[in-house]
Design goal:
Number of strands: 7
Largest sheet: 5 strands, mixed
Low-confidence stretches: 1-16, 481-485
Shape: globular
Order of helices and strands: HHHHHHHHHHHHHHHHHHEHEEEEHEE
Strand order of the largest sheet: 1-2-3-4-5
Strand content: 5-15%
Number of helices: 20
Distance between the termini: 81 Å
Structural class: mainly alpha
Mean pLDDT: 82
Number of domains: 4
Radius of gyration: 31 Å
């Protein structure tokens, strides 16, 4: 394969970089090398070394965060866990004996970057998850940067990474596909390892030996097992990357066969839009932007499977070449439809962080679409010769952009807050239709600060809503069954019977956390001092009761509801003003040895 990794001599002298390995060929070894690059000597201990590194990282992850019982949202712990995970995976996937210090530095640097992203993401929104948009953007940057680093490590005479665009494309493309194949195969091996160990554990369970299954109950064992299996698989495959290269080519051949199918489908789809227009896309109920972006991503993937690493890898079949050209050219109209779809959403509902990320993704797709169309117009069936250097520059640009957006430099929440407030103040959206939940839980510190200002507004209704949103513990407290924000706090959602009874504050606190009264009208009916029936608009009956030992109020869904008749839904007006009775009901049911059997039948 290396015989195809050539650039013209004049060009190589201009770049001061060629596809010739920067390191000298490995010394003769008594063992036959299965490595693709002649500069890489056999490393028999590699699978064991990688397995040990990943197993220790798994143990450290467990000691840092134990998610078995409840999510740990401590920023420091989560940031360190992210540092451990990313540094270990990047190092294991990208390390070679030659220039291993480069791999170590690269892995530690990216681990620190992702740790910073996690640190800032956890405290950004109330009850925020680690896996927010900045985290995924940072992860994308890592995934694209890794093959760039591997290529630079292989062929660069020094560490001047600002010359990334001068690297040989064939080797870069090969690294990207090889990393994907090895990563997927290692994950599959990890899953099979778990299944095998569980099978062994169950076998020993049958004869009364519980050691293996008890180990699974210990948090450290699954993490160490997963790490050892993944690291060992990566090490084993890296030492046989000639075989992996063959597997990679097989994957590309299989994907290339699908290129004409998608090409024909996209041509028919785009031509059909000339007759039907875009209106049906908006009425479909699906996210048009997401669907178009997914189609564009598949088009790029299949086109690259056809064109391969270089001229020598390009599919010889002209049908496949033509299909790849169609796929590359189709990216631009697909990206344009996605961008226009996002544009309409922004005009209708304003900016949100999700829409800002969506528009950014659509603009990246547009950039690739323009590059692809230019390559097809310029090179026709030989478009890949024009496209490859453009793809390399786009990959570098994507890495830098994804990293920039992931870091706490540009605040999408602040941008969204300003836009939504402007819509509210201009009257474009009424207070009862305003997305108070997004301001409280999606827009970060600026959104919460805006709510505090709105709570002091001279507009009493607006101030009341803002104060209510600030006091909500989660966004579901601000939702009604029809998806609109409720305008009343909990105390105004309930009807208390018999009249004059006072619901204890502790019982209200329980209802704020669970139960139907958070987002719809309901009745609280005192059956006695220690037990309150909760009747919802859906006709379901549950209860609040004091725990006989602790005295705490608890919510119980299991109040007796074994009637054959389905619960009857009622309107909010009936809940608030209707006549409420508790009647004794006589029923007939079978009993065997004093125990009820089945439901009542009369």
């Amino acid at each position: 394969m290396l015989s195809g990794l050539r650039v013209p001599l004049k060009q190589a002298q201009m770049w001061d970089m060629t596809d010739t390995p920067a390191s000298a060929p490995a010394p003769e070894s008594p063992r036959m090398s299965h490595r693709l690059d002649e500069s890489d000597a056999p490393w028999p201990a590699r699978p064991w070394v990688m397995a040990a590194i990943c197993a220790l990282a798994g143990l450290a992850f467990h000691l840092t965060l134990d998610w078995r019982y409840a999510p740990n949202m401590d920023p420091g712990r989560n940031a360190f866990a992210a540092f451990l995970t990313v540094s270990t995976l990047v190092f294991v996937l990208g390390v070679e004996l030659r220039r291993w210090t480069w791999a170590l530095g690269f892995a530690l640097a990216w681990g620190a970057v992702i740790a910073l992203i996690v640190w800032t993401s956890i405290g950004y929104n109330v009850n925020a998850s680690v896996f927010e948009w900045p985290f995924w953007s940072g992860l994308l940057a890592v995934l694209v940067a890794t093959p760039l680093f591997q290529t630079r490590r292989d062929v660069a005479p020094d560490w001047r990474f600002w010359k990334l665009w001068q690297m040989p494309y064939e080797r870069l493309h090969s690294h990207a596909w090889t990393d994907a194949v090895i990563g997927a195969a290692a994950l599959a091996f990890t899953g099979l390892t778990f299944l095998l160990v569980l099978l062994i554990g169950q076998m020993f369970e049958l004869i009364g030996i519980h050691l293996v299954m008890k180990l699974f109950e210990q948090g450290w064992f699954p993490w160490m097992l997963a790490g050892a299996a993944f690291g060992g698989a990566v090490g084993l495959l890296r030492e046989r990357d000639r075989l992996v290269s063959t597997l990679q080519r097989l994957v590309m051949i299989v994907l290339a066969v699908l290129a004409p199918v998608l090409a024909v489908a996209l041509v028919v789809f785009l031509l059909s839009l000339l007759g039907t227009g875009l209106t049906k896309l908006w009425d479909s109920g699906f996210s048009t932007a997401a669907l178009m972006m997914a189609a564009a991503a598949f088009a790029v993937l299949l086109a690259n499977a056809v064109i391969g690493n270089g001229k020598e890898d390009r599919a010889a079949n002209r049908l496949l070449q033509g299909a790849a050209a169609v796929l590359v050219a189709a990216v631009l109209p697909l990206a344009a439809i996605a961008y226009y779809s996002m544009h309409l959403r922004v005009i209708q509902y304003g900016w949100t962080p999700e829409r800002l990320w969506g528009v950014t993704a659509a603009m990246i797709a547009l950039a690739y679409g323009f590059a692809g169309l230019w390559a097809v117009v310029r090179g026709r069936l030989g478009f890949d010769d024009v496209l490859r250097p453009l793809q390399q520059k786009l990959a570098i640009g994507l890495t830098l952009l994804a990293l920039f957006l992931a870091l706490p430099i540009v605040d999408f929440g602040a941008i969204s807050t300003r836009d939504q407030l402007a819509r509210l103040q201009s009257g474009a959206v009424k207070a009862d239709k305003f997305d108070w939940a997004a301001l409280a839980f999606d827009f970060g510190p600026d959104g919460r600060a805006a709510l505090k200002d709105l709570a002091k507004s001279a507009d009493r209704n607006r101030a009341k809503l803002a104060d209510w949103a600030l006091k909500a513990k989660d966004r579901w407290d601000l939702q009604t069954p029809d998806g609109l924000q409720s305008l009343r706090p909990l105390e105004e959602m309930v009807r208390i019977l018999p009249s004059g009874r006072l619901v204890p504050k502790e019982a209200y606190d329980v209802l704020r956390v669970t139960g139907p009264c958070r987002n719809k009208a309901c009745i609280l009916y005192f059956l006695h001092e220690e037990r309150i029936a909760v009747v919802s608009q859906d006709g379901e009956v549950s209860q609040l009761q004091r725990h006989p030992k602790t005295g705490e109020w608890i919510y119980d869904y299991s109040i007796r509801q074994d009637s054959v008749a389905a619960p009857a839904k009622v309107t909010e007006d009936q809940v608030r003003n209707g006549k409420v009775e508790v009647r004794d009901v006589t029923r007939r049911q079978f009993f065997i040895d004093g125990k009820p059997v089945g439901q009542d039948f009369e």
